[in-house]
Amino acid sequence: MPMSRPLNVLFLCTHNSARSILAEAMLNHLGEGRFRAYSAGSSPRPNQQPNPLALRALEAEGISPAGLHSKSWDVFAAPDAPRMDLIITVCDNAAGEVCPVWPGHPASAHWGYPDPSNVEGSEDERLQAFRATLAAIGRRLERLVAQPPEALRHESLAATARALAQEERP
């Protein structure tokens, strides 16, 4: 049974500059219209922008970074925001914070990834950390996209997303 609309997925992290940006772009790339991904941060810094190394990692994989920008999760708690079906925290800080009340009571899961922004070294070493994080996110998202429709229904979605978090530790 085809879905009547794409499954809306919101990826959350503290600053919305690396992991959540990578996840948003990757799911929109892999989702083939069945998914619509967004990202936001619990406390993005003033004038926060996506990390340039995150954008380079995406481009290296042939994924367009067009339209990606950092934003607060408050944008998605507003009454006129798109209704989310699934919210995934991708950093431990955001997972431990008190989230807004999301319209529609979406399913939730935590998929923790180390912050590639914290890697020290040459620019090439730091870029490699972003590429490794993108690859880890991509493997999990490939499994999400491959799920049968019944696993993506509202009543099953949280269990499906949480099971994917247990399958592979980054």
Automatic annotation (TrEMBL):
Residue ranges of coiled coil: none
SUPFAM superfamilies: Phosphotyrosine protein phosphatases I (SSF52788)
Keyword annotations: Arsenical resistance
The keyword Metal-binding is assigned to this record: no
Domain Phosphotyrosine protein phosphatase I positions: 7-147
Name of the featured protein: Protein-tyrosine-phosphatase
UniProt organism field: Tibeticola sediminis
A Pfam family this chain is assigned to: LMWPc
Entry keyword Glycosyltransferase: no
GO BP: any one term: response to arsenic-containing substance
InterPro entries: Ptyr_pPase, Ptyr_pPase_sf
Highest taxon listed in the record's lineage: Bacteria
